[in-house]
Amino acid sequence: GSATLSMAYAGARFVFSLLKALRGDSGIIECGFVASEVTEAKYFSTPLELG
């Protein structure tokens, strides 16, 4: 369904951004779930600079 397509799109976008960062592009921002102590949640969605 649409949730599966949304997850596939998000994954593909993240991988394409990682590839851009690996080739040397800069200023690439994507969100990712990372360990966080800001809230009681163990992981939180945070903007990440990849390149």
Automatic annotation (TrEMBL):
Alphabetically ordered keywords of this record: NAD, Oxidoreductase
One Pfam family recorded for the sequence: Ldh_1_C
Domain of life: Eukaryota
SUPFAM superfamilies recorded: LDH C-terminal domain-like
GO biological process: tricarboxylic acid cycle
Coiled coil: none
Gene Ontology MF term list: L-malate dehydrogenase (NAD+) activity
Cellular component aspect of the GO annotation: mitochondrion
Protein name: Malate dehydrogenase, mitochondrial
